[in-house]
UniProtKB/TrEMBL annotation:
The protein's name in its UniProt record: Trichome birefringence-like N-terminal domain-containing protein
Membrane topology: Single-pass membrane protein
Organism: Brassica carinata (Ethiopian mustard)
Regions crossing the membrane: 13-33
Keyword Transmembrane: yes
Domain Trichome birefringence-like C-terminal: 110-400
Keyword vocabulary terms for this entry: Membrane, Signal-anchor, Transmembrane, Transmembrane helix
Any GO molecular function: O-acetyltransferase activity
InterPro entries attached to this UniProt entry: TBL, TBL_C, TBL_N
Gene Ontology cellular component annotations, sorted alphabetically: Golgi apparatus; membrane
């Protein structure tokens, strides 16, 4: 009888052992298979950009992925500082897909954007965007993104007294995000933030102090300058706008652009504390003014476009590679002299977004003529970008550098 009981106990023990082995096998198989079927387009990570397969993390090579769950970060009508130049929905745009695209790098993931984390990183600091209306649009974007978590309007403040400087402040974090109007970076006759549409453009190519003294002491400086240079030659002035004895000379555009950026780099080298200040330069923002370049009709532009360009590596004539190389060379020279300025390469990823411009859906500053009304493409804005939209992604890339300490490869 005792032997029979021992035998039964042994059978039960063997059964439990076998059951445990089978359960462990099922769990292992399930985990293994679930890892094998993970989609290649991972969702955004919560931390720094994670690299796949040991490859370098290039945030600027990738593709657009439709994502109506995490995008947009804010609603157009809820952003108190939205610009009528960029509020496409307010001015009648019916399609909304332009708001739902996120950028997915090929070899890594962007960190998930967190507005609270951004404001915390800017606590007691000043971030300033310096440049033209495209940089101003990017400033509006970052303010909308940051203020999306500020529920009490009394905890944020904006100051605009009509000067070149517009200032946003989060009072809770003592965080300041400014925009400074300087479309050519150096001094020019287009420096008035309101009255700058002039028949002739003149730059003082070696003069930047009048602008730079307003932003040099900032903790983060984001610069851009591109579209205002797009002409064959530009008149340069050696002297002062206030006197009549200056010397004027027409200079080929790429050369004068290089001279202006050299003036900028020399100023930064002398006046910026590299231990305190992070420097960024936004690359060219492409235009979409010739539909035939992406297979559309001749004499048309971005008007009516609601889809992306799907040809990888597409480049239109709205971008000038020679100017891009000038920026790269100037930044390389600055780095060799001990001051690092990151270029945020938005050009290629923005090339695909012919759908992202305001087109006719923005405030018209002047009364439209009858022939314009009959031909909407004639007054379509294919330079600036709707918000929410493409500039939010530019700021998301900046976020990876500022908040999560991404470094260029």
């Amino acid at each position: 009888m005792a032997k029979q009981q021992l035998l039964m106990l042994g059978i039960r023990a063997s059964f439990h052992t076998l059951s445990a082995v089978l359960v462990a096998g099922v769990i292992f198989t399930t985990v293994f298979l679930s890892r094998k079927v993970l989609p290649k387009e991972h969702p955004q990570s919560d931390g720094a950009p994670n690299v796949e397969d040991g490859r370098d993390c290039n945030l600027f090579e990738g593709k657009w992925v439709f994502d109506n769950e995490s995008n947009p970060i804010y609603k157009e009508e809820e952003c108190k500082l939205m610009s009528d130049q960029l509020a496409c929905e307010k001015f009648g745009r019916q399609d909304s897909s332009y708001k739902f695209w996120r950028w997915q790098p090929h070899t890594c993931n962007l960190p998930r954007f967190n507005a609270t984390k951004l404001l915390e990183s800017l606590r007691n600091k000043r971030m300033v965007y310096v440049g033209d209306s495209l940089n101003r649009g990017q400033w509006v974007s970052i303010v909308c993104m940051a203020s999306s978590v500020i529920k009490n309007p009394k905890l944020m403040h904006m100051h605009n007294n009509g000067s070149n400087l517009i200032s946003f402040k989060s009072l809770e974090y003592n965080a300041t995000i400014d925009f400074y109007w300087a479309p050519l970076l150096v001094e020019s006759n287009s420096d008035d933030p309101t009255n700058h549409r002039l028949p002739e453009r003149i730059v003082r190519i070696q003069s930047i102090e009048r602008h730079a003294r307003h932003w040099t002491e900032s903790d983060i400086i984001v610069l851009n300058s591109y579209l205002w240079w797009r002409m064959p030659h530009i008149k340069t002035l050696w002297g002062s706008f206030e006197t009549l004895n200056g010397t004027y000379k027409e200079v080929e555009m790429v050369r004068v652009y290089e001279m202006a950026l050299q003036t900028l780099s020399q100023w930064l080298e002398v006046h910026v504390n590299s231990n305190r200040t992070k420097l960024f330069f936004m690359s060219m923002s492409p235009t979409h003014e010739r539909a035939e370049e992406w297979g559309g009709k001749t004499n048309q532009n971005c008007y009516g476009e609601t889809s992306l360009i799907d040809k990888e590596g597409y480049n239109g004539r709205g971008s000038d590679p020679k100017m891009m190389r000038v920026v790269e060379n100037v930044l390389d020279g600055l780095k060799r002299r001990g001051l690092n300025m990151h270029m945020i390469n938005i050009t290629q990823l923005s090339e695909y977004r012919k759908d992202g411009h305001p087109s006719i859906y923005r405030k018209q500053w002047e009364q439209l003529k009858e022939d314009q009304v009959l031909d909407p493409s004639s007054y379509s804005d294919c330079i600036h970008w709707c918000l929410p939209g493409v500039p939010d992604v530019w700021n998301h890339l900046l976020y990876a550098y500022i908040v999560d300490n991404h470094h260029s490869t």
